[in-house]
Write a structure and sequence with these properties.
Blueprint: H1 23-57, H2 77-81, H3 89-95, H4 99-118, H5 122-140, H6 162-176, H7 185-189, H8 192-196
Helix pairs in contact: 1-4, 1-6, 4-5, 5-6
Amino acid sequence: MAVHDHPHRHVGFRLPSLRRAGTAEATADTAASAYVFAGLRLLTGFVFLWAFLDKTFGFGYATQSGKGWIDGGSPTKGFLSGVAAGPMESTFHNWAGDAWADWLFMLGLLGIGLAVMSGVALRLAAVAGTAMMALMWIAEWPPAKHVSDGSLSMSTNPFADYHVIYAVVLIALAVAGAGATWGLGSAWARLPFVGRNRWLQ
């Protein structure tokens, strides 16, 4: 009786190879990453730009028709006067509806939205957007289980809410230099004053 040696076949889960991918694969992966970041950049920028437009013109979504900024409404009054928890509750109540707060908030939304969508000044947009998201996070104060009147806060997560996610995305877009694909990032970076001041990229 003849015995035949059969090579052992390993079936099942296989870890990815740690060897460097070929040039074609690496190029395809780089291009795919650039498109993914560009799509993420456009969507994130539109979040900020839409908030500015809706609060300015009162499209009837988050801001009722006739209550937009151009109609005399305050973009900050409703949100800041409704703050009901956290260490800055009384401070935010004092700021609610102040002209300087309205202008700063709206210019922030517009500037961040335009910068991120166009792909220019992503570092500045990341800093400004992170500061804005931090203030909004403090205003909503997710760590609180109860608001000042004792009722449940309905917080879904004591730390990682959408403000944190937006801030991380803005930082990631700036670090990745995501303005070159489907954006004006490359042209912006070639401007002499931007070249001399890299923090403007």
